Amino acid sequence: QVQLVESGGGLVQAGGSLRLSCVASGTIFRINTMGTMGWYRQAPGKQRELVATISSGGSTNYVDSVKGRFTISRDNAKNTVYLQMNNLKSEDTAVYYCNLGINWGQGTLVTVSS
């Protein structure tokens, strides 16, 4: 069983930055052996959407709305995936979730004030 714990959310003004972290633990050796990890988000009243993914080989993919502003990365030695979010906009306000296969974290709230 894998546990994912997100952190780093908070309240920030538009144009600001936040870095989210997701630490994986449990019956895993290294996250790079587990496949693609991703960050998703769910805004109030909306469906959960994919934000970014990173493969075990380091290939990344982003939803168009965050390209050039968000960067996903992973530290395999620390079993941690990060999401660096720059130039935040009010529409980025959401609960952000970390995903690894069928496993989800509890989410961390990001609120961007305009």
Biggest sheet layout: 7 strands, mixed
Class derived from helix and strand content? mainly beta
By oligomeric state, this entry counts as single chain
- Structural Rg: 13 Å
Shape: globular
Poorly predicted ranges: none
The end-to-end span amounts to 40 Å
Mean pLDDT: 93
Order of helix and strand elements from N to C terminus: EEEEEEEEEEE
How many helix segments?
A: 0
The total beta strand count reads: 11
Fraction of residues in β-strands? over 45%
- Helix % is under 10%
Q: Could you characterize what this model shows?
A:
By secondary structure, the protein is an all-beta fold. The protein is built from no helices and eleven strands.
Keywords:
114 residues; mainly beta; seven-stranded mixed beta sheet; four-stranded antiparallel beta sheet; 11 strands; 54% strand; globular
Could you give a short description of this structure?
The protein has 114 residues and is mostly beta strands.
Provide the fold topology.
Elements (H helix, E strand, L loop, with lengths): L1 E6 L2 E4 L4 E9 L10 E6 L6 E6 L5 E3 L7 E6 L4 E6 L8 E7 L2 E2 L3 E6 L1
Parallel strand pairs: 2-11
Antiparallel strand pairs: 1-3, 3-8, 4-5, 4-9, 5-6, 7-8, 9-10, 9-11
